[in-house]
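FAQ: What does the model actually see?

It sees only this:
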Amino acid sequence: MKNFSRLILCLALSSLLAACKQEPVRFAYLSDTHFSFGSHSVRDLRECIQDINTLDTLDFVLLGGDLTDFGADAELYAIKEMLDSLKYPYYVVAGNHDAKWSESGCNTFREAFGYEQFEFRKKGWRFLGCSCGPDMRMAPALLPRESMEWLKGLKGGERSIFVNHYPQDSSVLNWFDVTRELKRVGVQFEIGGHWHNNYIMNYDGIPAVLGRSSMADKNKPAGYNIFRITDKGEVTVAERRKLENGFTQLEPWYTATLSPVQDTVHYDAHGLPDSYPYMRYEVNDNYPQVKEVWRHQEQSNIVAGFAREGDVAYYTTASGTVNAIRIQDGSKIWSQSFQGKIFSTPAVAEGLLVFGCTDHKIYALDADSGEIRWKVEAEKSVLGSPVIFDGKVFIGASDGRFRALNLADGSPVWTFDGVEGFVECRPWVDAEQVVFGGWAGKLYSLDTQSGELQWVWKTPRGNNRMYSPAAVWPVKSAGRVFVAVPDRKVYALDARRGEFLFTVDGGREAIGLSRDGKTVFAKTMHNQAYAFEADVPAPEAGAAPAELWRVKSGIGYDISPTAIEEMDGQVIMGTDKGNIFALNALNGDPLWYHKLSVALVNPMTVWEKDGKIGILASTMDGVYSLLEIEK
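And it is asked to produce this:
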C-alpha cells in the first residue's frame, strides 16, 4: 500500500512539474519588407504571410522595420491591411524608410498601427520594440528622445528581448545610451534588420541577430525567420525560404543560450564610451574662442531650426510643442502644445510666429503669448518650413499644394496645386519667384505674385524619388538657382527659365550662400567642403566650373542636409553627428570645431553683435544652445 501511495505521489509530482514547465516561445520574424506598389516586394510579403498562416505552433509575428519603401500613407495602410490577414497577433517597429521619407511626418505609422513602441510578455519573456529614426532628416539612425524616455521608464531587471530596425552599434548615433538602458532593463537578446541578410552580432555583451529581408533577390528567394526561445534561454533561429515546392525550413543558422548581461563599458565624463569613433567633446578645449553660453535638453527630438526676433527665439519639437525662449539664458517664456509632430522651422514677423504641423494645419501664433491667431487647414501634414516675404507666408505641404497666405489673417493669396510628392524644405522667395522641391524628383519655380508655374526642372535621376531636390533649401544669386541633390552633385540652373547650366561634383542636400550673394558653399559626404563664385562662367558640357577652393573638412563621412551659413568671413556648417565647424570663406582654412551633441545639427540661426558671432543651434536629440564666437 505504501509503495502504491508513493507511486501515486510521484505521478502527481511529475504531472505538476510537466504542467509548470514552460513551453518555448515561437515566433516568425519578417524585416525589410519595403512594401511598394508594383514591386515584387508585395508578392514576396504576401507569400510569406500565406506560409506563416499554415504553421500551427507560433505565438506571434514580429516585423523589424522598413515595412514600406517610402513611408507613404497609402503604402502604410496597404501593408497594415495585408498584415491583418495573419492568423497570429503581430507587432511592428518602424525603420528608416518608414520615418525618413514620411509624407505624414511619421504620424501615419502611429495612426495605422496604434503605437510607436511596444511591450508585451509571453511565456516568461518580455518583448520590447521601438522605432529607430532618423525622423524626416537624412542622418545616421538615432533612437528618438521620446523612445529613450520610454526605455528609461521601463521596469528594470526583467529578462527581455529588444527589437529595433538598426543594428545597435555605431550605426545608431546614441547606441551607447540605448545599450546601457537595455542592460538596465534586463535585455538578454536583440533582434534587428536593415542589412537585408542574416547576421550574428554582439553589442557590448548583448548577443544579437539581424534578420534577412522578406524580399527575393538575385542570391536568394523570398523568406523569413523562425525563432524558438526556451524558458532556459536556449535560442535557435532558422530561415524559411520559398523553393519550387513551397516554403522549406532550413537548419538553424543561429543557436545560443542567453543569460543576464552586466554593463562593463567605461564611459567618460560626457557619457561617451571608450569605443566612440567620432569627434569627441575634448575638441571643444582646443578652440577657446567658441563659448557655450548656455545649453538645455528637451525631452523630445528637435527636428527643425529657430526663428529669432530681437532677444527672443522660437523652436519646435517632434512631440508637438512650440516654445519661446529668452536668448540671454535660454529660459522659457511660453510653450504651446499641438496634436501633431512638428518638423517645420518657424518664421516670425510683425508679431506673428508661423509654422506647419503634422495635424494638417498651418498656424500663426501671437509671438508674445503663444495664443493661436489663425490656422489654415491642409489635406495632409504640413512639413515644409515657411518664408515670410512682403506680408505673405509661403509654405508647402504634403497634399500636393504650395500656398501663399496673407500674414495678417491667413487668408489665401494663391494656391498652386500641381506639386508632385511632398514638400519638406524651406523655399527660396524673392520678388520674382518662389523655388522649392518635392519628393518626386522635381524643382518648381512659381511667380511670387500670382502663383503661376514658371518652370519645372527634373533631376537627371528624377525617376527615382530618392534623388529629389526636396530636403535642400535652395539658394539664388547672379540669376541662378543652386540646389544640392542626393545624387551627390550641386546643380546650377538659369533662374528665369529653369535651364540646366552646370554641375559641381560633391554634395548631398546641404548648400549655402555668402551674405553678399557672391559665393556658393557646399560640403561633400566624404570629408570635403568647397566654394565657387555664383557667377562663375558656365563651362562647356561635361566640364567642371572653376572653384575658389576645395579642402578636407576634417569631419569625415557626413550626410547632414542642414543649410550652410556664412557670417563675417566664417563658413559655418553643421554635421550629422552633433559637430559645428567653421572654415575661412576666402580659402577654406579651418577656423574652429565644436561638439554640441552626438546627433544631427538642425538649421542654425546666425547673427553678429558687439564684435561676436551668435549661433542658436539645436540637435535632433533635443539639445539646444547659444554659442558665442570671438572673431
